[in-house]
Structure formats: C-alpha cells, structure tokens
C-alpha cells in the first residue's frame, strides 16, 4: 500500500479549498470597498470566479442582473453549465452562470464539485446582500430629509417599501413582546392584529361551528400603531435592538420551514444546513430556544428518533455539526432515511468527548476513524432496484423457515446491483479513503438503543480495498449487500421478537470506516483493540468495585475481543484497578493470554487469523508499540519487552499488555473516557476502541446492557447436601432464580467422546429444540466449555442466540480432565445477549476445592429427552433433560448468587 497517495490527495483537496477561500475573500474585498455595485465592480467580481474552480483555465463566468450583463475575460458558453440565482428578500433579481468550455469527469453535479456549488451560492448570497443594502440606503436617504422621525419609524418605512412581509412578522413579535411584558393596551391591538375572528367567541365556550371572520384590517397601518405603542413603553434603543435581533432571527426561516416539514428530503435538509453554514457572519442570530429547536429537529430527522438519545444529544450536538456530516453521507436520490443507531452513538460520543477535552487534557487526542455513511433507506432502495421486496416478509415467517432461507437471501443480495446514485457516492468515498482497508458496519434504526443494543446481530465485514478502482468498488458493494442481507438473518429476527420489536419499522444504515491500523509486512492491523465498560458486573477480586469498569483487549483487530472464542483468550483489565489482574501466576498468565491475532492480508485481500508468535518472529520490530503489548518470558519471571535489544528470533513472548498498563496513560485515559460518557448519558456505557500505536480511536459507543439485580442476596445455609446441585465461587453476579422445573444437562464426558462433526452440531440443534419447547425461564442449561463461540466445536456446545434465548441461566462447566475452560466472556456480543435477556451466566469449576458438584444427581436422574424429542433419542447419553418434580416430589430448583461474597448455590426447595 502506497503511503504517499492519501497525502497527495489531502494536499490536492486543501489546495482546492484554498482556491475557493481566495475567491470568496477577493469578492468580499470588492464588496467592502464599494457603496454601490458599479459596472467595474461587477467586472472585477465576475473575473474572480473562474480561479475558484477546479479547472480555472477552462472556466468562464457570467453575472446577469438589473444592472446589466457582465462576463469574464475570453468568455465562452458551453453545455456544461452551473447556475445559481441572486436573490434579494427571496425575490430573484439576477443569476450567476459558470461554464466549462469542454467536458470534464463527472462529479457531484455534472463536472462540478459539491463545494463549487456552495461557493456559487455564497457568492450569490453576498451580492444579494449588497443589492439589498443599496435599496435600503436609497430609502434611508429619502427619509433622512423629513422631519425628525424616530429611528424606528425610518426602519419601518424602509421595510414597508422593501419587505412588507418582514414588517408584519416583526410587528407580530413586538405585539407578543408587549403583551408578555404586561402592557395592557397591547391586548386590544393583538385582537385587531390576529386572529381575524371575534375575540369574544374564544371565551364563550367551545361550539361546533366556525368562528366569524372580522372585516379586513390595514395590516401595515396596524404595524405602525404597534411600534407607536412600543415607543411609549420602552426605550427607542431597545426597540431598535429588538428589530435587529428579530430580523437576524427571521433569516433562519428557510431552515425552520425545511426542518418542520415532514415532506422535506435529506437533500432539502442538507441544502438548508449548507446555506445556514455559509451565511456571512452576523447575518443571522438565533435565540437559544430556536437553536435548540433546530438541533433537535436535525437529530430526529438525520440521526435517530429515539427519545432517550435526543434527550442527551440536544445539549451536545449543534446545527453546525451536521454540515460536515452531510459531506460524507450517501443516500438515494430522494431520501428520507436516517444514519441509524450505531452512527448516532459514535457521532454523539465524539461531540461529548470533544467538549470534555476542554477541561480534561487527557481526552484531547481521542480520535474517530474517517467515516462515510449510507442512509437507512438505502436498504429499501437497493431491494426495490433489484425487485427483492418480498424478502421484507421474512420477519413474520416461522423461525425454522427463516433459518432455511437465509443462505438464499445472502446469495441473492450478493448477486444484486447497487443503484447508480449509490454507486456514484461509493466512488467518491473510495476516492476519499484511498487504498486503506475498510470495515462495513451495520447501523440500523433499532440498533444500540437502551435495552436492545443488537450486539453482533448484524454483520460487520472487513474489506481489503486493494486493486483497481473497479475491483475496490466490487469488494465494497458486495460487503454492503451482505450487511443488508443480515437484516433478514434468524438471530436479529428472533432477537426482535424477544424484545417486542418485530412490528417496528426497521431499516439498515451503513457505516463505511477506515480500519485503524498500520501496515506490517503484507498485513494491516492496529497495535491492539477491544471493548471497555463503565461498569464491571463480574469482578475477579473483592477489591474491584462495579464502577471500576472493565476492559477486554486483544492484539490486532478487535474481532477476537467481541466474539467468544473456543481456542483463545483476551486480556481482562479493570481501568479503576489496573494492578488487580485476573491471572497472577506465571502459569496462569501464559495459559490465559492471547495466542492468535486477527488481521488483514493486503496481498491476498483477505481477513486472516495467524499465531502471534509467527508474526513477531518475522515482523516483531515493525509491530506498532510492541514494547507495550508483549512481555519477554524469562526462566522464572516475565518482563515487558524493551524497545531496543529485544531478540524476536530467540526470545519467547506473551501478550499481557504489562507495558501498556504500567508505562502509559492508557488505563487512566480509558477510565476518563468511560466516566465522561457515563456522566452525560446518566447510565453505564460501553465502547469499542482501537489503537494504531500513536492514537486512541473510538469506534462505537452505546448504553451498557445491564440487569436490575443490584441488591445483595442472602445465601441460604444449612441445606442438606443431597439437595444441593452445585455451588460456585468465581465470577458471580447478584440475583435469585426460582421455580426452575427442568435442567438441560450436556454431559462433558460424553460430549468429549463425540468424534463426528455432525453429531457435535446435532447437540446444539437439540438444545435449540428444547429451548423452543420448554417453558420460558423455567429451565437452565448446563454443559461443557464455551457455548456459542467460534473455533473448535469440541470445546463448547455450538449454539446461537436464538437457540438459548428462553433459558433462565447458562452454566458452563470446567472439568480439568477434558480441558473444558469457560471463557470469561464478559463484554462479548454473546454475553451482552445474556444480560439483556436477563439470562444468568455462571461458570462452574467442579474440581476446585470446596465446590460442590452433584454429578450423581445429574447423571442418574431420569432422562426425559426421548419423551420430548423422540427423534433425538440417539443423543440420550449426551443430552439429559431432567424434570425436578420427577426426582423430588413437589419441588423446584432455585439458584442464589451474591457478588460481594463471590458465592452461588443451586438447590432443590
């Protein structure tokens, strides 16, 4: 990957922006030095325009208005034209035209850039203001010769002649102001001014007939009467101040009209925001109420309409913030879509941290990756363009049918075409990204909301972004299509059904982000990445409090942090207690450290997983921040690698992030990020992050999934041993589970004997069937290793969310003899599903001292599997279905858990 291309592109873009600014400044200088626009002034202005465009040598300009027609030097007309109206008080008084004398490559509007359109609009606006100023000056000079009029009267005279509609609006504001300040005579004028019905009818009670209209009123004369009344009650200086303030505020009317109109398209809103953004300083003044109203309207229309989000965002996102957002947004030609939950969460978090950094220096260098967005209605546009509308009905089909048909949906989507307007936007995005690897992420309307974050339900796909532009476009388009298809996969549909969201309208927005990372040999990856949580729900030490938080961190891409893995481990840290580690002994550190790294192979264009040892031996010195990520294993101790003197061929290494914890501000920085976000959100949050060796990048922010079991539970004592099913002493949360009628037990010993891959899959399918048959939250699942993780299927039962979502608890059993070790999966997508569904997670270590594990009860109780699922009787030695009432008459199972005592017990009562 060539490093100089993006730099050259950035320099070229900066040069274009510099040309546009020079053009604006040059024209403003001409306007500033003249009271009236003369022929010479217009000639100067029209010749300043071509140098501001992308191809100045073939650009020609013309200005036509009441003062004449003015053309640039060597003027030529052509078919390639861009025109913008010159307006005075919304009335067209002229036109600016720009021509390219020959055909040039297609851009935003024909051969013209979006920035060039804004440049033209800005020039037209400034000329319009100058012409308005000239009109007002004539009126002012006419009135100056009359008797000593009050200054406000002169202003009203000007408005009556140049903009009577504005005069009426200002009069309305003044009469309202007088009424609010208690001027009693104002009431009578208010009744005359508006409404045009008899005021007595208002107070005579509601009647089922229209109010009677009054006869017409001379509204201009009434306007003068209103200001005459004002002059008798307030100072002239205050009247003029109000007129100036309200006039500036009135100029935002165009924005109000667009934002309050539900029929306004995204293009309409974008144009209005751009117009607002480029208005000359001092032209517009918004009250705090109007500014907040506009911000909320934009948040609701562009980001998300979730009330909880708007309540937080309205104090941190401003109108100006949307201008840059629109520049990176791709949408259908006529779009009414939003950016979706994931995009909204990241955008808000960035604004919160930017504001917080003003008082907290440690937050000053937090970055977000370069991002482009596709609006949520892009999915519907894609489906309509490819005649795929019938797939919208998938969510109402039986979940088994959804499972069967999903591969077909993916196949059809990946072999469909993106609409032309979207392709055009993607080409612009690819030009902006250069050949840096990309990740295509979902951002649905329902995603990342409080209580339903859809963690890992929709796809995120890495794109190497290598090759010709056509090849890169194909890679990106196919990835977007596959993310679209994931909207109709079984897991999110089952998840929506569980959370009563199936009938809600769902659309899929897309984030296209530059992958955070560095090129190392043929590979591309960050130094490290992971997840962080402001609250730690499963503590490994009594000294760790919930508010100390949790970090789940891995080398390379963060995929190994968010997924459950059967064959590897992340590093768990507590930002509030960085020195209290999960693993303390050398043996534990070596066993439970990451052994593999996910990365992008730029040569093959693929996402790969390789052993971290092999990567370090070949490219150790190039690994970003390696001395903070790895430690060297000595005979009887471990020490962080040194920047100099590390021998990657001879030394043995372990990834434990000791240097990161001890020698950098990373933990303090992460803790401050979590604290700042939680303070504003008003509840716990979780984030995704990556670090390229130089900077911390925020990738995602949302509300942390949590349950309501905060009160401590009293653990029952003096329970007879034969009624205890198990006890647990590690990683226990708070809570009580009662009235459990069934246990689904996958015998670790028998499961380990299964050799056939299909038999192992059948165990997971059997669990899924029982999950649908048994009464919701009246059964628990028990079995070996890490359920629902990717990797070696022998190390844990292969299930998806929809196959366990009705259980009351998932108990993972670690037996030393079969190498079944539960993954401390706190923070993974799988774990967040459990928390949201209020499914308790308990890891069991039966072979450790003092733990009770009633294996005799589990193995020798009557197995009801054949009764419930006769077709699965071949698995009766592996999967046991135990009815508690069959073994203990009139009894049920209960589980009590206390996090402070780190104790849990399951017993019959």
Task: For this entry, give a set of tags.
single chain; 909 residues; alpha+beta; Beta-Lactamase; 5 domains; five-stranded mixed sheet; five-stranded antiparallel sheet; 18% strand; elongated
Q: Your description of this structure?
A:
With 909 residues, the protein is α+β, with helices and mostly antiparallel strands. The chain contains 32 helices and 30 strands.
Overall number of strands: 30
> Judging from the principal axes of the Cα atoms, what is the shape?
elongated
Number of domains: 5
Q: Decide which structural class fits the backbone.
A: alpha+beta
Beta content comes to: 15-25%
Helix content: 25-40%
N-C termini distance: 66 Å
Helical element count? 32
Mean pLDDT: 86
Low-confidence stretches: 196-204
Main sheet summary: 5 strands, mixed
Q: Rg from C-alpha positions?
A: 34 Å
What's the arrangement of strands in the largest beta sheet? Answer: 5-6-9-7-8
């Amino acid at each position: 990957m060539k490093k100089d291309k993006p730099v050259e592109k950035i320099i070229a873009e900066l040069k274009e922006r510099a040309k546009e600014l020079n053009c604006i400044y040059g024209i403003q200088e001409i306007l500033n030095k003249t009271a009236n626009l003369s022929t010479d002034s217009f000639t100067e202005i029209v010749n300043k325009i071509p140098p501001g465009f992308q191809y100045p040598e073939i650009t020609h300009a013309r200005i036509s208005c009441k003062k004449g027609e003015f053309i640039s030097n060597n003027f030529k007309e052509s078919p390639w034209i861009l025109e913008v109206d010159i307006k005075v008080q919304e009335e067209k008084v002229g036109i600016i035209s720009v021509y390219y004398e020959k055909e040039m490559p297609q851009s935003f509007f024909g051969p013209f850039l979006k920035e060039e359109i804004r440049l033209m609009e800005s020039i037209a606006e400034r000329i319009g203001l100058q012409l308005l100023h000239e009109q007002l000056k004539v009126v002012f000079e006419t009135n100056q010769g009359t008797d000593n009029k009050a200054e406000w009267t002169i202003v009203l005279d000007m408005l009556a002649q140049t903009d009577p509609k504005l005069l009426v609006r200002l009069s309305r504001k003044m009469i309202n102001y007088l009424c609010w300040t208690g001027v009693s005579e104002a009431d009578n004028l208010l009744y005359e001014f508006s409404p045009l019905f008899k005021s007595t009818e208002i107070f005579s009670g509601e009647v089922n007939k229209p109010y009677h209209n009054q006869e017409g009123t001379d509204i201009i004369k009434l306007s003068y009467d209103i200001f005459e009344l004002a002059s008798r009650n307030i100072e002239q200086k205050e009247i003029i101040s109000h007129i100036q303030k309200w006039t500036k505020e009135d100029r935002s009317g165009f924005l109000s009209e667009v934002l309050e109109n539900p029929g306004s398209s995204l293009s309409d809103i974008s144009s209005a925001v751009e117009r607002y953004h480029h208005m000359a300083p001092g032209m517009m003044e918004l009250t705090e109420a109007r500014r907040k109203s506009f911000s909320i309207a934009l948040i609701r229309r562009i980001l998300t309409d979730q009330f909880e989000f708007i309540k937080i965002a309205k104090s941190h996102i401003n109108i100006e913030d949307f201008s840059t957002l629109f520049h990176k947004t791709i949408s259908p030609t006529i779009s009414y879509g939003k950016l979706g939950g994931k995009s909204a969460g990241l955008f808000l978090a960035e604004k919160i941290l930017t504001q917080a950094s003003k008082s907290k220096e440690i937050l000053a260098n937090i970055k977000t990756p370069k991002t482009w967005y596709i609006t949520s209605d892009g999915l519907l546009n894609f489906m309509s363009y490819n005649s795929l509308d019938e797939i919208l009905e998938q969510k109402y089909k039986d979940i088994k049918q959804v499972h069967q048909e999903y591969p077909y949906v993916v196949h059809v989507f990946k072999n469909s075409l993106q609409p032309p307007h979207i392709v055009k936007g993607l080409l612009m995005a690819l030009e902006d990204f250069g050949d840096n690897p990309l990740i295509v992420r979902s951002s649905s309307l329902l995603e990342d909301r409080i209580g339903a974050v859809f963690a890992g339900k929709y796809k995120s796909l890495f794109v190497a972004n290598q090759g010709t532009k056509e090849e890169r476009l194909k890679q990106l388009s196919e990835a977007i299509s596959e993310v679209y298809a994931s909207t109709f996969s079984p897991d999110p549909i089952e998840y929506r059904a569980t959370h009563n969201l199936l009938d809600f309208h769902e659309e899929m927005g897309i984030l296209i982000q530059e992958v955070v990372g560095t090129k190392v040999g043929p590979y591309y990856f960050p130094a490290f990445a992971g997840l962080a949580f402001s609250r730690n729900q499963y503590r490994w030490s009594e000294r760790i409090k919930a508010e100390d938080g949790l970090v789940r961190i891995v080398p390379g891409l963060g995929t190994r942090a968010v997924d459950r893995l059967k064959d590897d481990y992340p590093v768990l840290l507590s930002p509030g207690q960085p020195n209290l580690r999960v693993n303390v002994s050398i043996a534990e550190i070596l066993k439970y450290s990451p052994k593999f790294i996910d990365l992008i192979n730029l040569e093959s264009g693929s996402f790969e997983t390789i052993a971290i040892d092999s990567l370090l031996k070949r490219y150790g010195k190039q690994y970003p921040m390696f001395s903070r990520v790895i430690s060297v294993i000595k005979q009887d101790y471990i020490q962080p690698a040194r920047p100099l003197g590390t021998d990657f061929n001879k030394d043995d290494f372990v990834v434990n992030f000791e240097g990161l914890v001890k020698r950098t501000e990373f933990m303090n920085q992460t803790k401050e990020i979590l604290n700042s976000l939680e303070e504003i959100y008003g509840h716990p949050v979780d984030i995704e992050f990556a670090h390229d060796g130089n900077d911390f990048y925020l990738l995602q922010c949302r509300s942390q999934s949590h349950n309501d079991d905060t009160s401590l539970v009293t653990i029952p004592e003096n329970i007879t041993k034969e009624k205890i099913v198990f006890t647990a002493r590690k990683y226990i949360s708070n809570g009580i589970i009662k009235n459990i009628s069934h246990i689904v037990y996958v015998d670790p010993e028998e499961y380990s004997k299964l050799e056939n891959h299909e038999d192992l899959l059948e165990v997971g399918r059997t669990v899924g069937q029982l999950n649908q048959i048994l009464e919701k939250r009246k059964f628990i699942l028990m079995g070996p290793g890490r359920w629902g993780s990717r990797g070696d299927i022998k190390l844990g039962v292969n299930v998806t969310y929809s196959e366990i979502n009705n259980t009351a608890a998932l108990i993972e059993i670690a037996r030393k003899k079969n190498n079944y070790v539960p993954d401390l999966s706190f923070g993974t997508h799988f774990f967040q599903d459990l928390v949201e569904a209020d499914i308790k997670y308990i890891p069991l270590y039966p072979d450790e001292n003092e733990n009770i594990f009633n294996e005799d009860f589990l193995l020798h109780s009557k197995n009801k599997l054949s009764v419930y699922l006769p077709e699965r009787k071949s698995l009766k030695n592996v999967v046991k279905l135990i009815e508690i009432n069959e073994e203990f008459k009139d009894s049920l199972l209960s589980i009590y858990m206390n996090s402070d005592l780190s104790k849990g017990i399951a017993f019959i009562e």
